[in-house]
Amino acid sequence: MAEREENPAEPPMEKVSEKIHDHDSSSSSSSDSDNEEPAAQSSVKADIYRLFGRERPVHQVFGGGKPADVFLWRNKKISAGVLGGATAIWVLFELFEYHLLTLVCHTLILALAILFLWANAHTFIKKAPPCIPEVHLPEEPFLQVASAFRIELNHAFAVLRSIASGRDLKSFLMAIAALWVLSVVGSWCNFLTLFYIALVLLHIVPVLYEKYEDKIDPLAEKAMIEIKKQYAVFDAKVLSKIPVKAKRV
Hints:
- The structure is a single chain.
- The protein has helices spanning 2-6, 12-47, 58-61, 66-71, 76-95, 100-125, 139-164, 169-188, 191-211, 213-237.
- It has 249 residues and is mostly helical.
- Helix 5 (76-95) packs antiparallel against helix 9 (191-211).
- The longest helix has 36 residues, at 12-47.
- The chain crosses the membrane at residues 78-93, 99-119, 171-188.
- Keywords: Endoplasmic reticulum, Membrane, Transmembrane, Transmembrane helix.
């Protein structure tokens, strides 16, 4: 017993401090590893090719509001209603060859006749008269749409001016090609059909891309690499020999 008292064990406070130190070191190492994992994941995500060089989700690319919800079918009832309404309008104007003014007048005649007869016959049919709401269009949405349209139109004019100035041959050729394609498409169908096709594509292509983007992006990357190779060959054989003082990109 005396020997045990002469050689006491390590004090308990030192053991506790060692355990705390070991726990802190292990927790710090684990936190460092946890911090390294998101950094590695972010670096991997940064290396992934995205179509058109986008860095945001598809929903944010479309503005992240109600139009994005409609195009990406977040609310299936609203998306189906918009697409169904556009289809009905296209069928009326294209297949049934209805005119806009005729359709508006016939719709107003039917609505006014029903409401007028209902308002005068409610005593005979023993029903309450129709409650016709007062319609007041707010000014702010129209100003916002006009302002957004003005900004986009000014940007388009600025781009056309930059192209016409002759400083960028690549942009000039791309603009000529795009306008020629639009002219060919316009000769196939009228503006309403073209607008309807664009609306249908906006309801189909983005949602399919969002669903299969991990499979589409690698294919798009290969296609872009091949397009850049072909453009380099075309630039070396054709564009470089054109005597135009233009800054090619």
